[in-house]
Design a protein that fits this description.
Length: 250
């Protein structure tokens, strides 16, 4: 079984392709909050268990960590993780494996989506990353089917510092809902509400309002059809990412 968490769709795409090549089923963790007991029973019967997720500030998203803390697998179950990242994963997977044993782990470079701090990758780089990801996913699938114990994670420079120092500070001082807003032009279409994997957005007086559960996945910003959702003043002049645009060569 493959469980995944996704914001802008990169990790869902990777999970679905892996599921197709390994003949497994890919399930969104965000949809399992009311079914933990049922899913745990299914996991107990499986020979392998995979988790696919995006790197958030060089570690795993909070929702994934909390979910993994509530499930228990037989010791013999083959466990693996695949993270998606714009560039590097830091020590994120190593840190995760400290409290949830992993037999294998990989990172897959995908187009960057965290526009509050970074620019979007240009179209050429996005297409390049997607094509390279297709090849890498096929290679990963073969290793998973053979239940290989491998660790192919691009940690990047200053990996320990990023994961163990920057990440906790980032979570404490940056990861919250303050700063999100909708500019003039909002049509109350609810795209942001429906896209939020944390169910953290609601419409109030026909405008989106963010609750306290935000994890900065940026799904609401990228999904808005009118590009009027902003984070402070750092996203107004930046583009928006749409995975479908890059799945087929022009």
């Amino acid at each position: 079984m493959i469980l995944y968490f996704t914001g802008t769709g990169n990790s869902r795409w990777v999970a679905e392709r892996l599921a197709e090549e390994t003949k497994e089923k890919a399930i969104n963790i965000a949809h399992l909050t009311e079914q933990k007991r049922e899913i745990t029973e299914k996991l107990m019967k499986g020979e392998s268990f995979g988790i696919i997720f995006p790197i958030h500030s060089w570690y795993a998203p909070r929702i994934l960590i909390e979910f993994l803390q509530q499930i228990h697998l037989p010791h013999q179950t083959y466990r693996y993780a695949v993270c998606t990242c714009g560039d590097d994963a830091g020590k994120g997977l190593q840190r995760l494996s400290g409290h949830f044993r992993l037999d294998a782990a990989w990172s897959v470079a995908m187009p960057n989506t965290y526009i509050p701090m970074f620019e979007l990758d240009d179209d050429t780089l996005c297409f390049k990353k997607i094509e390279e990801a297709r090849i890498r996913i096929s290679s990963i699938a073969k290793d998973i089917l053979a239940q290989k114990h491998v660790w192919e994670v691009h940690e990047g420079k200053a990996a320990w510092l990023k994961t163990y120092i920057v990440n906790p500070l980032f979570n404490r001082f940056v990861i919250h809902s303050k700063g999100f807003r909708s500019d003039e032009g909002c049509t109350s279409c609810s795209a942001c509400v429906n896209s939020c994997p944390m169910n953290n957005i609601r419409l109030q007086e026909k405008h989106p309002v963010w609750g306290k559960g935000c994890i900065h996945c940026m799904a609401c910003i990228h999904i808005c059809p009118h590009e009027v959702i902003q984070y402070k003043n750092s996203t107004r002049q930046k583009g928006r990412y749409h995975l479908k645009k890059y799945l087929t060569r022009p």
